[in-house]
Design a protein that fits this description.
Layout (H helix, E strand, L loop, with lengths): L4 E2 L11 E3 L8 H5 L9 E4 L5 E3 L2 E2 L1 H8 L4 H4 L5 H20 L18
Antiparallel strand pairs: 1-5, 2-3, 3-4
Length: 118
């Protein structure tokens, strides 16, 4: 696929200064089709505001093609229950860590997660 992915700036502050996020992204057959290294998407942290986001990411025409017809999950075997449970456990562990992390003690504010997936 030519030009299937695009490098994007931060959607919150507009900065294009980023560093690689320290997380392990699972392999995805679609990422392999797009030619992403090792079949994994690439996530970065904005140096301006700290937002974590995918870049490079699939461009809008690729995303449109992926979801066209609304059969994305059916063509990939549906969403197995074990994945739903794994996602819930992983999210709970991340939340527990964030609430107990000393550097976050006493901070107030809000967090917004916009994304796809379970």
């Amino acid at each position: 696929m030519t030009n299937a992915v695009e490098v994007v700036a931060c959607a919150v502050c507009g900065s294009d200064r980023t560093r690689k996020a320290r997380l392990r992204v699972p392999r995805d057959e679609y990422a392999l089709e797009l030619g992403l290294p090792d079949g994994r998407s690439s996530w970065v942290v904005c140096e301006g505001c700290g937002l974590v986001f995918q870049s490079p990411r699939p461009n809008s025409s690729v995303v449109d093609d992926l979801y066209e017809g609304g059969e994305y999950h059916e063509t990939r075997g549906g969403v197995p229950e074990h994945y739903v449970q794994y996602s819930l456990r992983r999210s709970q562990r991340a939340l527990d860590w964030a609430l107990a992390h000393p550097a976050l003690a006493g901070l107030t504010g809000r967090a917004l997660d916009i994304g796809c997936g379970i």
